[in-house]
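**Backbone geometry record:**
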Amino acid sequence: MTVSPTLQKYLDQGVSYDLIAHAPTMSSTRTAEACHVSGEALAKAVVLRRDGGYMMAVLPASHHLHLSALKSQLGHKVDLASEDEIERLFGDCERGAIPALGECYGLDVIVDNSIDPHRDIYVEAGDHATLIRMDGEEFARLTAKAWRGHFSTHD
């Protein structure tokens, strides 16, 4: 099990969490299945390009991002970042396994309202074989400075 060093340093500052090892997967939906976790409880990260910088949208793995809804809520031009851009931003993470805790990477974050703070939340740890489980209230505390909005729909 490997937690990205940036995320590990962030979590070591008083965050209560558990690590869950799983068979390697290449999508958040498959990760949820491998860990027997609801796709509603697995928070996935989508990295966005905006105003010459980057930000992160966080939504359940079982949902699809609606970029047009996100653009209207943020009030400016927003596009999906490329895999190469994401790799540069998250150099200590495996491609496609970025944690849904963008604050520790210096990113602004918007969290979809469908993330339920009354249940455990799971996030990628930075590799394709480890999940982090934390109480939903802990996740809410870690994302307290994030914007909130509705920009996804369930599969």
The radius of gyration is 14 Å. Residues 5-148 form a domain with the YbaK protein fold (CATH 3.90.960.10).
